[in-house]
């Protein structure tokens, strides 16, 4: 095997590693979004969405500690989107 084949193997290996890392990161983001959606489905009555029967939500509540923390963190991190849009187009 010559230096060209070794170079091609290294390039393909790096390409494979990069794509695997990208897929793993995308999967992590998707998991976070699905957790947020799950919490919103169970606690949707707070924002006006139809909610599941209350006995079901109450039974699942002890298992939702992490989801509630994620929901709370997202609410704290969320900015005022209307203000951002108004600032972008120059409305003061």
Tell me what the structure shows.
It is built from four helices and no strands. With about 90 residues, it is mainly α. The protein has one domain (about 5-90). The longest helix has about 40 residues, at about 5-40. The radius of gyration is 22 Å and the shape is flat. The mean pLDDT is about 75.
Question: Features of this protein?
Answer:
92 residues; 0% strand; 75% helix; mainly alpha; 4 helices
How is the secondary structure organized here?
Elements lengths: L2 H40 L11 H7 L4 H13 L3 H9 L3
Helix pairs in contact: 1-3
Number of domains: 1
Distance between the termini: 67 Å
Radius of gyration of CA atoms, rounded to a whole number: 22 Å
Helicity level, as a percent range? Answer: over 70%
Number of strands: 0
Order of helices and strands: HHHH
Low-confidence stretches: none
Give the biggest sheet: none
What percent of residues are in strands? under 5%
Average pLDDT metric: 76
| Alpha-beta classification | mainly alpha
Count of individual helical segments: 4
Coarse shape: flat
Summarize the entry for a quick read:
The protein has 4 helices and no strands.
């Amino acid at each position: 095997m010559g230096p060209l084949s070794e170079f091609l193997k290294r390039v393909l290996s790096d390409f494979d590693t990069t794509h695997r890392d990208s897929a793993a990161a995308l999967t992590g983001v998707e998991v976070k979004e699905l957790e947020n959606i799950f919490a919103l489905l169970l606690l949707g009555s707070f924002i006006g969405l139809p909610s599941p029967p209350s006995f079901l939500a109450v039974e699942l509540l002890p298992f939702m500690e992490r989801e509630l923390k994620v929901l709370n963190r997202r609410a704290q991190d969320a900015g005022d989107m209307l203000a951002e849009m108004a600032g972008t187009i120059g409305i003061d």
